[in-house]
Amino acid sequence: MTRHFHVLARDGVYPGPSRDLGSFVPLPPPETDDVAHVFAGTARHILRVVERGSVGPNEDSLVQNEPLLASLAAATIRSQIAALVHE
User: Fold this and answer.
1) Are 13 and 1 within 8 A, CB to CB?
2) Which SS3 state, helix, strand or coil, does residue 72 take?
3) What DSSP letter does each residue of 26-54 carry, written as one string?
4) In the beta sheet, which residues pair with residue 12?
5) By C-alpha distance, which of 14, 32, 11, 33 is closest to 23?
6) Which of 12, 16, 35, 82 has its CB 3.0 to 4.6 Å from that of 22, i.e. a possible disulfide?
7) Using one digit for the tens of pLDDT, what is the confidence trace for 56-65?
8) Virtual CA dihedral for 53, 54, 58, 63, nearest 10 degrees?
9) In the prediction, which pLDDT does 28 show?
């Protein structure tokens, strides 16, 4: 099963203070080691959450408040067909 993520990220900074951001300054792409460091930290965090079992259906606000959206998101994560529309 292949998983992928969609991300929208800025490739630079606005160097000024929040009240006067200034012009956008592009930054070079991150080094491989930087990406690996962020990925490893994220993986550790996700593993801890899963091992604790702290995210269950009764604690998930998306499941409680938007069950259809939660169902569609779960199907997407599993690379399954999320919904069929019949007319």
Assistant:
1) no
2) helix
3) E-PPPPHHHHHHHHHHHHHHHHHHHHHT-
4) 26
5) 14
6) 16
7) 555 667 777 8
8) -100
9) 92
Task: Report the alpha-carbon distance of residue 75 to residue 68 in Å, rounded.
Answer: 11
* Length reported for the chain: 87
Tokens matching residue 13:
């900074």
Give the per-residue pLDDT at 84. 63
Name the amino acid, one letter, at 84.
L
Structure-token pair, residue 83:
């919904």
State both tokens at 64.
């409680």
H or E element in which residue 12 lies: strand 12-13
Strand partners, 69: none
CB 2 within 8 A of CB 78: no
